[in-house]
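Structure in, sequence out. Go:
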């Protein structure tokens, strides 16, 4: 069975996978780009997919020998390795090994250990079926192996940042044991990462929407948000210490202002065309939005730039059974190019993302009409998160007046982004970012004090 014959099978098989992201495109070709044959019948494949529209993707497909497997290769049958506990354990062990193995295409398969630990042998394995774009398996309720499916050449920001934070002993990320990469001409492409599994931890979004459905002034999540703000601030300080920082320059603030207004022009135009009634309140506010972003261009002090989370919201944090906040998924906004996601930015971008998430959490359980109690919860959540963030006395931030202006602008920019997203994906949620934009425009200190 040749690679070409396997590729022909994959044309039919790939679109049946939950993690395959080309379901709305027509496949023109599939090829085996690279391959690593490992002990125990484990084969790691990098598969190229070409589309009739001219685009192309690469996917990671680990398979393992199985008599009833759906794929035929080299005279044997294979199945997806994530369905095999032994194969999962082998991939996890590879991620914790510093050895490099040559691949068929001339690259090398490379593990990058972080802590020096390895999972105990023969741990029970169970797959997680909730993800759409990747695949994960839990080993013994202690570790989680995340296998990346759609591949992106270059240093993976989530793996890079969690490795750096783990090495520093930062307590608010799941510890990373190691990661697996294929390296071609010194450029890595991440394949998998092995991290601590927070058994019993609950997602911040789940907690928030349960609490805002029947909000009270003494909700358990509300009481924990000061600690979340402190954890986020300490993350920024740790990343600045480990990976460096620099002062924001005029080119940075000019670039932010230009990008913010360019996005706003596109989104407001789309809003007029797609949802004129739902966005009528914004019709005469474009000049105010532009003026807010122009103020960023004029800033003389925008603080320090550091590596940031890049897409921080309540769905990216978990509260574990010991009351510890865990920050997850440092990939940044997936629609942005990888170099942009790895660029240093203002830590206030992460703060703004979390503030917008409180807005969504207050609105989601209630639809069009948000009760006064939910609005009160949102305002208290903002205040407590910002209070916790400020407790570190963060030296990365600009002076207070510039700080409030910049946070206000980042939050407005995020709300405009959300409006564009909802117009395309969830029209019934359009009123949430519209209300957020109006509230920010009607307040000169919408972000509060950090």
């Amino acid at each position: 069975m040749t690679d070409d014959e396997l590729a022909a099978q994959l044309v039919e098989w790939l679109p049946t996978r939950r993690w395959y992201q080309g379901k709305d495109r027509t496949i023109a070709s599939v090829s085996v780009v690279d391959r690593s044959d490992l002990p125990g019948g484990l084969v790691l494949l990098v598969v190229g997919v070409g589309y009739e529209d001219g685009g192309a993707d690469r996917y990671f497909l680990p398979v393992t020998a199985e008599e009833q497997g759906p794929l035929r290769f080299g005279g044997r049958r294979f199945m997806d390795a994530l369905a095999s506990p032994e194969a999962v354990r082998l991939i996890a062990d590879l991620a914790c090994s510093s050895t490099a193995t040559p691949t068929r295409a001339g690259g090398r398969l490379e593990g990058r250990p972080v802590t020096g630990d390895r999972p105990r042998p023969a741990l029970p394995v169970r797959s997680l079926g909730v993800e759409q774009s990747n695949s994960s398996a839990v080993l013994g309720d202690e570790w989680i192996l995340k296998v990346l499916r759609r591949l992106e050449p270059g240093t993976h920001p989530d793996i890079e940042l969690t490795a750096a934070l783990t090495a520093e002993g930062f307590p608010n990320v799941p510890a990373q044991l190691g990661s697996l990469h294929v390296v071609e001409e010194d450029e890595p492409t991440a394949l998998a990462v092995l991290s601590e599994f927070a058994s019993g931890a609950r997602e911040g979004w789940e907690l928030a929407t349960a609490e805002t459905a029947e909000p009270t002034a003494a909700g358990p999540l509300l009481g924990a948000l000061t600690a979340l703000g402190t954890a986020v601030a300490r993350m920024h300080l740790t990343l600045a210490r480990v990976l460096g920082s620099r002062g924001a320059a005029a080119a940075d603030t000019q670039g932010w202002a230009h990008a913010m207004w360019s996005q706003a022009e596109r989104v407001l135009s789309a809003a007029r065309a797609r949802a004129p009634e739902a966005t009528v309140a914004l019709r005469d506010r474009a000049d105010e939005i532009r003026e807010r972003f122009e103020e960023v261009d004029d800033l003389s002090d925008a603080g320090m730039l550091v590596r940031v989370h890049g897409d921080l919201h309540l769905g990216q944090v978990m509260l574990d059974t010991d009351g510890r906040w865990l920050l997850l998924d440092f990939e940044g906004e997936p629609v942005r190019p990888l170099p942009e996601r790895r660029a240093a930015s203002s830590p206030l971008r992460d703060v703004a993302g979390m503030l917008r998430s409180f807005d969504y959490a207050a609105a989601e359980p209630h639809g069009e009409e948000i009760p006064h109690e939910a609005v009160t919860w949102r305002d208290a959540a903002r205040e407590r998160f910002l209070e916790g963030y400020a407790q570190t006395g963060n030296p990365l931030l600009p002076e207070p007046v510039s700080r409030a202006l910049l946070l206000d602008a980042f939050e407005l920019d995020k709300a405009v982004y959300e409006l564009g997203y909802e117009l395309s994906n969830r029209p019934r949620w359009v009123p949430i970012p519209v209300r957020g934009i109006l509230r920010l425009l009607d307040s000169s200190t919408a972000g509060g004090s950090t």
